[in-house]
Prior knowledge:
By secondary structure, the chain is an alpha/beta fold. Helices cover 47% and strands 10% of the residues.
Amino acid sequence: MKYLFYPGCSLESTAKDFMMSAQCVAQSLGIELQKMPDWTCCGSTPAHSTDELLAIALPARNLLIAQSAGLDLAVCCASCYGRLGAANIALAQDHRLQESVAEILGQEYKGNVRVRHLLQILYEDVGISEIRDAVTHHLKGLKIACYYGCLLTRPRELSISSDPEDPTIMEEILQTTGAEMIDWPYKTECCGANFSITRPSTVERLVSQILRAAKDSGANCLAVACPLCQINLDLRQQDIQERFNLPVFYFTQVLGLAFGVPRKQLGIGKLMVSPDEVLAGTTTGTPPY
């Protein structure tokens, strides 16, 4: 299985642990992630809140590279997935927009690239059985609240799940590790995203509600698939008066631990809330530490 991999800005800066763990998981499962050459920022939030055409042209440049490569485009960052996917759909449906973007980029994009989140690739292409066969260290004792945030299931046409209100794709993947999946009501609520900079009190309130719901439901950690969600839920715990002490893993870090990958290679040490207590005694076999 070979894909063109779009890292995006976060995975090469604040979310390097997501990049590290994604690469380890891919290697363990025989997935080839061929890094996109000369990739550029997808525009994320600033572009589509500033200029509609710019918001399409920025991701379209990367889609053109994928079109030339003839491969599905693999993405980890939820925001990048949303922007690349939205541009893909818009260009496929609007011929005039295609022409405007082609004039900017000097090349026509035909809207025929499949934009795939890594969760979709694991679930649809690799399969639950193959993932389960790769597990060497069972994580019994972890009680995981899977958190999707607002970008992986919205809008509906970009949702990674057939049920945007109650997705289970991450739970089905991570339950292969032997960890317990927690049923809870806040899995698709917004964490405040980049309001963390302009309205930190709003983000602290939203994060507090999410963490409280996870803890009250019986979770001892969370798993996420979005760099901004991870930062908000992990880093903001130190600013909230109530102490939750809930480690916030990337889903790829959980899989990596179950596959026997050493913590250092997964970037576990970057977590602000230490996972040592919840990981103690969870694995079977020789601990990968």
